[in-house]
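Ticket opened by: R.M.
Priority: normal
Category: complex prediction / small molecule

The reporter submitted a protein together with heme C and asked that the result be attached to this ticket for the collaborator who will pick it up next week. Submitted input follows.
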Amino acid sequence: MKRMKYMMTLLCAAQVCLAGWANAAPLSITLPPETAVLKPSALPGYPLAQQKCSICHSADYINFQPPGMTLAQWTAEAGKMQHVYGAPISDQDVSTIGVYLAVTYGSAQTSDADVQAALNPSAGPPPAAPAAKVDAMALLQSNGCLACHSIDQKVVGPAYHAVAAKYAGDPQALVKVASSIQHGGTGKWGNIPMPPFAQISPDNLQTLATFILQQ
Ligand code: HEC
Ligand code: HEC
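Result attached by the on-call engineer:
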């Protein structure tokens, strides 16, 4: 405290005193730029890293790593702290912190597929957008089914109404009808064969069969 007073006296001697301590900015001590903190980020690994990565050493260990490190490299670095130096972090922490470090200090982008996968480990592949589910009527049209079928009248092939009636109560209906569409066939409704539609995807076969059985 004595020393502090002495310094104040010195400063007053330098005529800053009149300006008031608060305005003495030009003489205030300038700290070197603060490098020993982690770069802020909205990623969940930021608070986690602040909490867990400063237990043993300063953030300079991270700041001084070479730039451009990938997600795999940063995650391995965090994993090394866990396995080799005994940092008290879980595997999930390693992954979350790895993402933060790779995006903030390394070459990774938040939009990268591996970054997204690490951020949402339980999400799996993104769910198919509802819009991607092709409308059954559009499928009937695009595959030319309506040249031979209509909903409620026999054309070349049976009316879908009649098909639905035939399979009513059959627990295997969906599988059988999907298979009929995929493989085509003859003899179930007469002698005229139905051509196979092997190129239709399983999803679309399902959509078509479901639709037809609802008629
Ligand atoms: C339990 C103590 C401990 C914790 C917690 C810890 N580290 Fe380390 N870290 C070390 C030691 C020990 C070294 C090696 C020091 C040396 O070589 O001087 C080190 C070194 C580093 C280095 C320098 C490169 C290297 O591999 O030596 C980086 C980068 C690093 N740590 C990142 C992290 C990150 C990121 C975290 C948080 C996930 C973390 N550390 C948490 C102990 C720890
Ligand atoms: C060239 C005419 C033709 C086209 C095109 C055609 N079908 Fe058929 N379809 C038939 C005929 C003929 C039958 C009756 C076959 C039989 O008797 O086994 C039939 C039967 C069916 C059946 C009943 C199968 C069963 O198990 O009873 C379904 C369901 C069906 N078609 C759906 C479709 C769908 C869906 C498409 C388009 C992807 C399509 N068809 C395109 C002629 C056609």
